[in-house]
């Protein structure tokens, strides 16, 4: 249940990011849900692998490294999906910031 709530919050966060940021485009809510799911899967697989590779930096700067990896997964999801586009990595960083703030505020 917690995963589904987190997925919905992420989808809403992507829609908010698309509204606020010119470099993020989301076609509709369904595309935002798919993007949130793909980002979650990428974080669970590729993000975990990247965390292992940069483990010494993760130990020194854990939140920053996870934030950068999350932005990279958002960027990759924008390249994979049709209804979700990310212009560049800077837009992905800003979208990751929007998602982080929204998850913090909603406690998801």
What does this molecule look like?
By secondary structure, the protein is mainly alpha-helical. It has one domain (2-106). Helix content is 81%, strand content 6%. The chain has 5 helices and 2 strands, in the order αβαααβα. A two-stranded antiparallel sheet has the order 1-2. The mean pLDDT is 90.
Give me some keywords for this one.
6% strand, two-stranded antiparallel ribbon, 5 helices, single chain, mainly alpha, 81% helix, 108 residues
Could you tell me the number of beta strands? Answer: 2
Count of discrete structural domains: 1
Number of helices: 5
**What is the C-alpha radius of gyration, as a whole number of Å?**
13 Å
State the helicity in percent bands: over 70%
Largest sheet: 2 strands, antiparallel
From N to C, what is the helix and strand string?
Answer: HEHHHEH
Uncertain residue segments? none
Distance between the termini: 11 Å
Question: What strand order characterises the main sheet?
Answer: 1-2
Label the structural class: mainly alpha
Q: What's the average pLDDT?
A: 90
The 3D shape can be described as globular
The amount of beta strand, in percent, is 5-15%
A few lines on this structure:
The protein has 108 residues and is mainly alpha-helical. Helices cover 81% and strands 6% of the residues.
